[in-house]
Specification:
With about 270 residues, the protein is α/β, with parallel strands linked by helices. Helix content is about 45%, strand content about 15%. It has nine helices and seven strands. It has a seven-stranded parallel beta sheet with strand order 3-2-1-4-5-6-7, sandwiched between helices.
Length: about 270
């Protein structure tokens, strides 16, 4: 892993899964980490664990879909971290999983607010700070192959990840004259609460369910820890052209580019 010492990092969705793995790995490497998620108890538990292992972290109970909640969290980041170098947008939900005609508008709106609006708002707050910093900063949005590949029963999730991809490209153009990078990276499937949810739905709601069940049964799901280290290295790399990239860590071509820029791929 590249040098993390003194880096100031914010992670949304930090109470579980990939977000937690990134937060823990970053703190272990010497970064100052702001953990953002809705579950305050879980965040405090992680911060206490990191503190006991000489990690430096703060818990910021945050609803990324609520601008006031986000603004309050970033004000605390301002006062305690004195700036922000890297943001990982990991917060997300996989539901609703069902055909559109069987999906409630409320559940669609809920997922849209977290998966899309939440990334918009978090990026906005980060950019307001990064544009004032001489060293700029890096934003990594966690996307999915579902943003490119369509699945029946997943119209909400697929379209929302596609929105994140295009948002990333647009913002990259807007900050191209500044030392700021923003990229959307798909790690591929890994064992998580989301995967458990997918495996638990009916084939009627999600015809591709068995594909995910087989990945689990065949032991082909990686752990979040593996991807956390790669994503952190990506954020630290000297790779200006990373900005605007929609990358998939399963792609041999993208892996080759990562390695060329000093990112270790296990």
């Amino acid at each position: 892993m590249l040098i993390l010492k003194h880096k100031r990092i914010a992670v949304t969705g930090a109470s579980s899964g990939l977000g937690r793995a990134i937060a823990e790995s970053a703190a272990a490497g010497g970064a100052k980490v702001a953990l953002m998620a809705r579950r305050e108890g879980k965040l405090n538990e992680i911060v206490n664990y990191l503190g006991a292992n000489e990690g430096e972290a703060i818990a910021l109970p945050t609803d990324v879909s609520n601008i006031k909640s986000l603004q309050e969290s970033f004000k605390i980041i301002d006062s305690k971290l004195r700036g922000i170098d890297i943001v990982f947008n990991c917060a997300g939900v996989v539901e609703p999983i069902s055909y559109l005609t069987e999906t409630s508008p409320d559940s669609l709106l809920m997922s849209l607010k977290v998966n899309v609006f939440g990334i918009y708002l978090t990026t906005l707050e980060a950019l307001r700070r990064m544009v004032k910093q001489d060293n700029g900063g890096t934003i990594i949005n966690i996307t999915s192959g579902a943003g490119i590949n369509a699945y029946a029963g997943w119209s909400g999730y697929c379209s929302q990840k596609a929105a994140v991809n295009m948002f990333t490209k647009c913002v990259a153009l807007e900050v191209s004259d500044k030392p700021i990078r923003i990229a959307a990276i798909s790690p591929g499937p890994f064992e998580s609460g989301m995967q458990e949810t997918i495996r638990g739905v009916s084939v009627h709601r999600f015809p591709s369910r068995d594909k995910f069940i087989n990945l689990y049964k065949e032991g082909k799901l990686n752990t979040p820890d593996k991807f956390a280290k790669i994503l952190i290295d990506l954020s630290l790399s000297e790779w200006p052209e990373l900005s605007g990239v929609i990358g998939d860590l399963r792609s041999a071509d993208f892996q080759k580019e990562c390695i060329e820029h000093g990112v270790e791929i296990d």
